[in-house]
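Let's inspect one such protein example.
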Amino acid sequence: MRPQPLIAVRDVAASSRWYQRLLGARSDHGGKEYERLVAPGRKGSPPALILQLHAWEIDHDHGPIGDEAKPHGNGVLLWFEIDDFDRAVTRATALGAEIVMPPHRNPPEGEPGGPAHREVWLRDPDGYTVVLASPDGESPL
């Protein structure tokens, strides 16, 4: 199984540029109505689809994706494991991303168990919560 999350956004092209810069991803479709973002695959693997973006008002024969007037992504976190955590935090800062939770260890220092990685929680331009996490075990006690 491979997750293929799709979020509705106000400006597909602007959101695409934001996520490309934040995640080091690239466009695999492009356009004002729909976008596919891919990340480089691991050695010998093709690029991996990591996120789809869709304009709120475009129905593409399937009806609306959601209601733009309602909170965007309430209760949903867009969670990305990344290999370059420190550089990603720098990129998020350069983008002017709203920081929801600054970089921290999960679980907190000194507590056993959990993924033993670092996280930073952000808001994207549409108000979705985005979590960037280093690989599990990257931040041992």
